[in-house]
Design goal:
disordered C terminus; 15% strand; binds adenine
């Protein structure tokens, strides 16, 4: 799969793609990443890429001509290299785009070629949205200084879905968000650290019990942190029974004036102890 990134700040991409999994994927020819400086496609001695908005107002707007020229260059490069160019997605990164998630990443990973346009300043001339971009994506409901970090996020998430990019050890099969649930808790050696022990079941060697515990923990974590995700997951009768008990236990804890997490009414459903450090999920 090929990614072409159009940016005013190509230096920002030195580093993130030169390490770890993405670097290996590039070296193995599984993905190609080309970064283009939009300024190189701007006309005139000053290579101006932005201008004041028509109608007045604060800030500058990115001009359409260099963006169109950079995108057309990327498309013809990809075509010449036999890496797409015909069914390419041209994505504008903008806080006004649809919210990027794993499902959209899976959709994009079906393509051979993605062109990512990093917006900046007060915005991008509307003709880029209307006549060039085939999609607009936001990585979250906050405003970054530009589309570069979002483009890196999109490349990272989509690239790891390309067959062969993940090794067998990191296989997608067990992955939680793509299975619709958040991930169950993971532990490694030692079995006891500063008095905190690993759940007994994980040391038991009972594979069926471990699988059930993991599934239950993933359900519980999703119920507590992202209940909205549960609506999209296909649940077995055992899952449904567990969730029903979990909801009852949560309701009882919420109603109780002095909840005692040491003695949960349902085994395995103890509310976590108050964290010593702030947990961003709480
Ligand atoms: N550019 C600035 N903020 C952004 C966001 N949240 N997502 C995508 N592009 C952006």
């Amino acid at each position: 799969m090929r990614f072409d990134i159009l940016t005013l700040f190509p230096g920002m991409f030195e580093g993130p793609f030169d390490e770890s999994m993405l670097r290996r994927a590039v070296e193995r020819g599984l993905i190609t990443i080309a970064v283009h400086n939009i300024r190189d496609f701007a006309a005139g001695r000053h290579r101006i890429t932005d201008d004041a908005p028509y109608g007045g107002g604060a800030g500058m707007v990115m001009k359409p001509e260099p963006i169109f020229a950079a995108a057309e260059h990327a498309l013809s490069d990809a075509r010449a290299a036999g890496q797409g160019g015909d069914d390419s997605a041209i994505v504008l990164l903008t806080p006004q785009g649809r919210l990027f998630d794993q499902r959209i990443a899976e959709e994009l990973a079906q393509r051979r070629h993605l062109v990512l346009i990093c917006g900046h300043y007060e915005g991008v001339d509307e003709r880029v949205r209307e006549h060039l971009a085939t999609d607009e994506l936001s990585i979250g409901d906050y405003v970054l200084t530009g589309g570069e970090l979002p483009a890196m996020v999109v490349v990272d998430v989509v690239a790891r879905l390309v067959p062969g990019v993940l090794g067998a050890a990191e296989s997608l099969a067990e992955e939680s968000i793509s299975g619709g649930l958040l991930e169950y808790p993971q532990y490694t050696r030692p079995p006891e650290f500063r008095g905190w022990t690993v759940p007994e079941v994980l040391l038991s060697g009972n594979h069926a019990a471990i699988a059930r515990w993991r599934r239950d923990q993933a359900l519980l974590r999703t119920l507590r942190r992202r209940p909205d995700l549960l609506a999209q997951v296909s649940l077995t009768p055992a899952d449904q029974r567990f969730l029903e008990r979990a909801r009852e236990a949560e309701a009882a804890t919420d109603a109780s004036p002095d909840p005692d997490p040491e003695t949960p009414s349902t085994p395995g459903l103890a509310r976590p102890q108050p964290p010593e450090r702030v947990d961003p999920w709480c």
